[in-house]
Amino acid sequence: MYLSSWSGRHVNSPSPDSCHSHRDFPIANWLSFCLLFWAGRQGGREGEWPAELIFILEEMDSNPMVSSLLNKLANYTNVTQGVVEHEEDDDSKRKEIKAPRMGTFIGVYLPCLQNILGVILFLRLTWIVGTAGVLESFIIVFICCSGTMLTAISMSAIATNGVVPAGGSYYMISRSLGPEFGGAVGLCFYLGTTFAGAMYILGTIEILLKYIATNAAIFTGGEEATLNNMRVYGTCILALMAIVVFVGVKYVNKLALVFLACVILSIIAIYAGVIKTAFDPPDFRICLLGNRTLLSGDHICAKYVIENNVTETTLLWKKFCSDDPSLNATCDEYFRLNNVTEIQGIPGDGVAVGKLLEWNNLWSVYREKGVIIEKQDMPSVPVPSLEEVKEKSDAYVYTDIMTYFTMLVGIYFPSVTGIMAGSNRSGDLRDAQKSIPTGTILAISTTSFIYLSCIILFGACIEGVVLRDKFGEAVNGNLVIGTLAWPSPWVIVIGSFFSTCGAGLQSLTGAPRLLQAIARDGIVPFLHVFGHGKANGEPTWALLLTALICEIGILIASLDSVAPILSMFFLMCYLFVNLACAVQTLLRTPNWRPRFKYYHWTLSFLGMSLCLALMFICSWYYALVAMLIAGCIYKYIEYRGAEKEWGDGIRGLSLNAARYALLRVEHGPPHTKNWRPQVLVLLNLDSEQLVKHPRLLSFTSQLKAGKGLTIVGSVLPGIYLDKYTEAQTAEENIRSLMGVEKTKGFCQIVVSSSLRDGISHLIQSAGLGGMKHNTVLMAWPQSWKQTDNHFSWKNFVDTVRETTAAHQALLVAKNIDLFPMNQERFTEGNIDVWWIVHDGGMLMLLPFLLRQHKVWRKCKMRIFTVAQMDDNSIQMKKDLQMFLYHLRLNAEVEVVEMFENDISAFTYEKTLVMEQRSQMLKQMQLSKNEREREAQLIHDRNTASHSTGMVKSHTAITTPEKVQMTWTKEKLISEKHKNKETSMMNYKDIFNMKPNQSNVRRMHTAVKLNGVVLNKSQNAQLVLLNMPGPPKNRQGDENYMEFLEVLTEGLNRVLLVRGGGREVITIYS
């Protein structure tokens, strides 16, 4: 201790300047020291210290002063975190921000106690005990308290796994299970809190109209008038409470201690009344006719009285005898046959288990609505006309609703909610990770003991007919629980009135802030407006919405009907708290390190199962509606909400499940029945890293009815260190386009030294484990004849070779910019399949997948196959139809016959032009200016030869197209070293060359097949063709491109399909 060197009665003090200059002293102690020094100087003994203050100073670090403890009690609040700070901004006298100093008792235990003990205890627990009996009531309370205790254990584990800011349960669930679950459950918890406010207000009105101001009812009459009174008064009270909350929560805060004192005093009054009953029971008499309970009133509990030897009938006689006071009057049959007796509502024999058996309070007494409340062990003479008695007599006490076990569970469960009060205020606690588990579990244990003991005490002390009398009509309109209280029933009446008022105010204070926290997270777009409020942060718009929803509960006007509604929402919240803890525990994520160690995933799973069971026990249709609401909110957030990365457990669960599934998937190819196109889409990007052919992604999404894997890849030429930023930009652009086109998949950008190597890397390494692509989709290089095209014909042919080597299917979309977008719809048309070579069934499967999408759904599928001279066309058609029948595919079948005939002049001409271009590229290098002139010269020469009949032919089919030259970069560089004379000599050799016969045959096949396809499928919406493989000799690669160009000439939309070398469709189940 710094003060340990000070001794004696008085010690010298430092100079005033030392309060500013001492640096070795801890700041907090030094400030206290300076304050004490100032106090000593003000006391008139400047320069001297009273030793007693020194001893107090030494004790201050470990033990707070009595005034400090009283100050904490005076500043006790049960409002949610952040409210006090908002109100302190309005108070100009409070400038300093106080550090959170609340402990377990003040910060967690008392708020939980106040929230758990409430309106159900005072207004409905005695009725539940009387209706369900002690045994079943004990089961109801035990099940509900067990559910909240298991939830508290899970909540303690989550709350102690790091700091929990404002938001409480919503924050815990959303950060543990993700924004979808968090938003859905957070809104359900908000609705539960809002309806809880409605329930508390209805409880307040019930106490006011039935037990305090019985003459204040506006409407008089039957049940409907009572409901209207509840609606009118409830709306007024709600408006008044909303104004109080809007004007300033500090007033609610100042009354928090009053509300807490009301709850505690009411509980003490109940136990005191039980003790007093053993010695001096209160006088609450009940009048019975036979075994039926009569309404209390000014009448004497007898049929007649004898005064001065004169027999006079009572008011009770008149009620049952049509207001005829004579002894010879015609009376009700049941009244005539049974005696009137008077018993004590609270017998004076004290508390004894034997009384439970004797009074039959152990067993349940469930009744329909409108049944007279009867004493079970009282003899009576029955009469057959029971319904008649009900209609004629208003002297009995009737049941107001039909009762059964599950309904009582739904009504009782709200009395055990409120366990989140401590976690909601974690920011105000000195040590939240220690206080939340201890305070919450202690509060649940305390309230569970209170509820369970009250069940036994009520059953042992109060008569059964009084317990079943919900509104105390048989005991002069007194609150039933108040009949047991000491020193007066008014203690319970007044205490419960203020308690329910306070609980309603706290609900209207907490619910808007919960909605504000959800709105500010930005996960539900349409709630964004409720994140705003007054200048100091008060949620004005959220308060308005809360009041409107609360008004819906008030218009229901029945506490028994509102209670099951909020039970659903609270149970769903507790269910997901348990789920969050179970998921985090089972995943064993490195960040899951709660300080609270007394948890296990089995307890969380048990709590989750119990909450789910309670939902359906309370009300199966309310449970389905609550789950439907939560499900709709979940899907809405998933579809429209902002994506949040909170490190939640559901994402961890997804990663774990993905890892497990990937390890389970066999590395080899799947069975034919499980085959589906796992597509690698190769995109081209422009100089600004934008996609050149966005409709390629549209076609991908249309093809993905098979629900397979999609990887969208692209290659950037260069070095990764230099192209890192461009690669990120390209990935963002592709992902954005994937979102627009609704293409679900993954994006992969490769930076490689050459475009060729990058494509090779994608084909080899895209995917993971068994989830690798088996199909490559790319666009046809339209400008393959131009030298400045990066994706040249050579890269294209090499890509075809690599997919073949990797046993992957290849899809090449020609004229991709003419393909439909996802918003377009074909109302008619055909998808034509030209099945020339069997490729494993790809040509059959692709149209089927496309027709699953809305764009192609109304298109018909036609299959063409080619028959040669030796084939039986009729039998081929039958066989193909049978094959399609076994494949379960609906398609028209047509066999096209192609016979050998003479090779046309056009075929020779096409072949010659192709070979001349290739030979010229090998021998000549022309300048850029000469290229166009020489190309035109070759074109004119070929045209002249065609007109003079240089090639033997009967007819010419069409006029040859203009020839474009294809040049390489190396030849352009060396063009300056060639002279024109050598060029013209080489030209003469080229003009005199003859076409290669093999190329002529290939060109002949391409021309003939193109003519047949044009004849049959020129107007088709899409044409699928077998794609022939490239030549083994690489010198013919350019000729291969020319063959494919001729094959697809004149068609609008073409999909060239090359199989992967395995069957992809089967006739077997």
UniProtKB/TrEMBL annotation:
Phylogenetic classification of the source organism: Eukaryota, Metazoa, Chordata, Craniata, Vertebrata
Region of interest (Disordered), ranges: 1-20
Protein name, UniProt field: Solute carrier family 12 member 7
Entry membrane topology: Multi-pass membrane protein
Domain of life, source organism: Eukaryota
Family: Belongs to the SLC12A transporter family. K/Cl co-transporter subfamily.
Matches recorded under InterPro entries: AA-permease/SLC12A_dom, KCL_cotranspt, SLC12_C, SLC12A_fam
Compartments, record wording: Cell membrane
Species whose genome carries this gene: Anolis carolinensis
Main location, first listed in the record: membrane
Known catalytic reactions: K(+)(in) + chloride(in) = K(+)(out) + chloride(out)
Domain Amino acid permease/ SLC12A: 108-277, 404-680
UniProt keyword list: Cell membrane, Chloride, Glycoprotein, Ion transport, Membrane, Phosphoprotein, Potassium, Potassium transport, Symport, Transmembrane, Transmembrane helix, Transport
GO cellular component: plasma membrane
Keyword Amino-acid biosynthesis in record: no
Record keyword Secreted present: no
